[in-house]
Structure formats: C-alpha cells, structure tokens
Amino acid sequence: MAKVVVDVMLKPEILDPQGQAIQRALPSLGFDQVSSVRQGKHFELDVTGDDADRVAEQVAQTLLANPVIEDFTVRLAAE
Amino acid sequence: MAKVVVDVMLKPEILDPQGQAIQRALPSLGFDQVSSVRQGKHFELDVTGDDADRVAEQVAQTLLANPVIEDFTVRLAAE
Questions:
Q1: Which of A1, A38, A59 sits opposite B26 (nearest CB)?
Q2: Tens-digit pLDDT profile for residues A54-72
C-alpha cells in the first residue's frame, strides 16, 4: 500500500481571500517577514495495488480539485 | 526570499469527516483502490530574511494550526 499526497492550490491568477486574511493578521501578531500567504488543500490517500500515483492523479482530477480554478500536485509520501 | 510550505493535518486519533466523505464517494466513481483519505490544509508562505523555516514554524504554531487537534509540518519548497 502506498501513501500518496495530493496538494490542491488555487491557480496563481485566482484571488485567495483566505490567504490574504492570514497575511493581514500576521503583522499584528509580530510576524513582519511574511510577504505572501496562499492557502490550499492537502490530502493523504492510502492506495492499494500498482500505479498508486496514477490512481491518485485520476482521483485528484475527478474529485479533489476543480481544474477550472485549481492546480494540483501528486507525490508519493517519503515513508 | 524563501518559499515555505506548511501542511496542517488533524491528529490521527481525531475523526476526519471530510476525508471520510471523499473516501465513501470514490467507489461509485470507479476508484476501488483507495482505502483511506484524510484531508488537511496546505499553506505556501513567502518569507523574507533569515531562518524562514523557524519563522514559518512560529506562524504555524500561532495562527495556522490548532495544536489541540492538529499536527503540522514545515518544509522549505524545493525551488
């Protein structure tokens, strides 16, 4: 069984209000060094059988990401 | 400027209804090989100055994760 990680992020040209809200809160908490924050989703899938990364890629394309506004990356977890 | 990635996941013993909902939807979409799905949050921070990963770790601890129910990992992006 393979553990596959899928990260889904809004495309760079899409506004990210969640990330902006975090970024604006940081200076008042004493963090002045953070110039940009973008928030996305992180999925950890346990996939059985062969070609786990191909299966995870299809899952991401079908269900986890909205390809109109989001990009995703698929990678096997290091463990 | 360093790009730092923070991944926040519910602790393993905490129920993840979002992940379960995805997992239960997969068989009807033709994906039978996925035995577990857990969902978390993914943040990409641009941090200026030195020790970007230490700053990002403090940001994660303070604002991005709820340490009662969530674990987080911090890593410098490959680029």
A1: A59
A2: 999 999 999 999 999 999 9
Buried b (16+ CB within 10 A) or exposed e, B42-70: bbbbbbeeeebbebbbebbeebbbeeeeb
ipTM: 0.93
Residues of B in contact with A21 (CB under 8 A): none
Nearest CB to A63: which of B25, B44, B52? B25
Yes or no: say if B77 and B39 are a contact pair by the CB < 8 Å rule. Answer: no
CA atoms of A23 and A78, how far apart (whole Å): 30
pLDDT in tens, B14-53: 999 999 999 999 999 999 999 999 999 999 999 998 899 9
Beta carbons of B26 and A1 less than 8 Å apart:
no
Please count the CA atoms within 13 angstroms of the CA of A42 that sit on its side-chain side: 18
Going along chain A from its start, the domains and CATH numbers come out as 2-76 (3.30.1280.10)
Rounded distance, CA A47 to CA A44, Å?
10
- Residue whose token pair is 């004493």: A30
Residue B79 has pLDDT above 60, yes or no: no
